[in-house]
## 1
Amino acid sequence: MVDSLELALTNLLTPAILFFLLGFGAGWFKSDLTVPEGAAKTLALVLMLSIGFKGGVEAARAGLSPEFLKAAGVGLTLSFGIPVIAFGVLKMISRLDRTTAAATAAHYGSVSIVTFVAGTEFLRVGGVPFGGYMVAVVALMETPAILSALILAGGGAAGRQGLRRELFREVALNGSVVLLIGAFLVGLLSGDAGMAKMEVFVGPVFQGVLVLFLLDMGLVAARRLSAARSLTLPLVAFAILMPLASSALSLGLSLALGLSPGNAAVLAILAASASYIAVPAAMRIALPDADPGVYLTLSLAVTFPFNLVFGIPLYTAAAAALIG
Amino acid sequence: MQLSHRKKLEIIVEAPVLRRVEAFLAEAGVRGWTVLPSLAGAGDSGEWRSGDFTPGQEKRLIFALVTAEVADRVLARLADFFADYPGVVAVSDVEVMRGEKF
């Protein structure tokens, strides 16, 4: 218990979290501090490239393991299943219309890649080993939640308008996922020899990029929160309690399948995270009537900061206590 | 200077459906158009700002000059589309140089 408290405190005092909080404060008090849009996009590219590449190299070292198939199975189950639970809870606690509730549920079933990046950094610093192939699991978990949400919403506009191809492109060929999986494959193929060439870029430089990116995320999250019009207390409670429930569910599945504590922690972090890039764009195509003021604000301005600051150490500690 | 009467179409749509709307224009016989980016805005679904992780809500402005007949075909097709999707369509009468191009 003391260990987990220490771990949580260590997380709070890392440059990544402190810069996120700096950005959040600056955004909340309407400072003119900004990360230029082009720079923010470049930082995101470096993050995806580094995390994908590192995962690929590690996966090449480990070889194909049955643990990967189990983790992928848990990930897919969660991505399909969490929206059903989230939808039921939202209908019970709020007066959201069916479409907005389904769209919000999709965000919680899908994943946030930045939360994954921050979470795996936390595990690396804490010396908790996990499989490099978890990068591939992230990509698998992006889409199923969207399908579940479409069923829950009863179809959607994309089917009526013949926009299925656009929907597919927006989700499956989403730039972040393409680069993440592409870099994973490059890492897998080039292995340790490739790592020797990329070391400085994906190693020491990575921390600085992550910190700058999180500063920007803090600014954006605070702006989003201060402009929020449709937030109610039950919705905010949902955005904090749903990640806890999802991570608990994920830990239960990992325990049942005998996954390692590190992989279980990564899956719990993924289950708890909510998408704010791929799914919102897909929802504008599939369910344009759903209110982004609800789903984007909950996912980006409440769940993301909660997971980053409190959730990641909590899920890691729970995985260690339950499985370790 | 010889000027001709044409219709100016200004269509604002969300970025993810841009390709679809461009396909409608091509099908309706529009010979050329220009797409412009957007910075920020507000509407039914709240405020949004380019770069604030609102990829689905960012808008694109499509600018096109067409004959009255082509404008009618475009509007007929867009009426169905905008039954489901948000957006803005404005048509105005303009005089253009080199009218044979539109």
## 2
Amino acid sequence: MEYDKEKKEIRTTKILNELDKFTIEFIDIAKKFVDYVIVSGYVAILLGRTRASEDVDLLIPQMKKETFVDLWEKLKSEGFECLNTTNIDGAFSMLDEHAIRFAKGLPIPNIEFKIIKTDLDKHALDNKLKVILDDYFLYVSPIELQIACKLYLGSQKDLEDAKHLHDIFKDKINKGELLDFIKELDVKDRFDLMEEYGDTYRFRDVG
Amino acid sequence: METRTDLEMLDDEFKKKNFMERLSFVKYWARYVKNHDDKLWSKGQKKLIDGQFDMAKRFYEGDSEKESKRLIRIMKEFQINKRSMRKSS
């Protein structure tokens, strides 16, 4: 994996799994209608974390009703359906209050569609990274913000995701920016714990 | 359901040790990803993730097959009962 900080690009030649393919298929449709950034667990998974997820979180800016309707119809024609409701108006209103989910065939995996609300959400979208996978690309949250947010969410799984991203990219990320986010979210103790605990046991090199 | 990782939770020695071991392995895996070709580590990731979705798919499909068989059994029993009621009347 190559991370070009100047271009805000990560290049990978990874073999795509079913979750990657599902996400690419959805984004391929959605990006024609709305700007987006992928946040949360799937960012770590896309970049090598060894776990699955039943959903992929997408942040989008506020949409006009007409654009949402066009997106809805296109998603429907490609086999995607909203898990919250079959009513377009209902789904559009729900977006003001909470995320709505789209799936294809089975309920998992699904895409969680959320409107940007906070300054950190906006920062994620405005400073997104392009992850290039052979013929496709996806936009994800900046790594520094993603690590801090994962620490904030705070479950063991989230700390593991944060640790994975931190260790993969620690030579490339902006340490000052990371510490700023850590301070803003008040998660310095979790960051220290993550670093301390990750150094406890050793494993031998294989492959 | 996972809860927040409060430092107090980690007073439980077993949980603490388990978490330390897990984080150490995450560190090891991150190093592996950094030091090996993307096509190599992603093979393992693909097996893990695709395997989980395959299991989920079979679960859903298995349930609908089970339900169809149950309905067919109920219909057959209904037909048998209908015939015996006609005979007795």
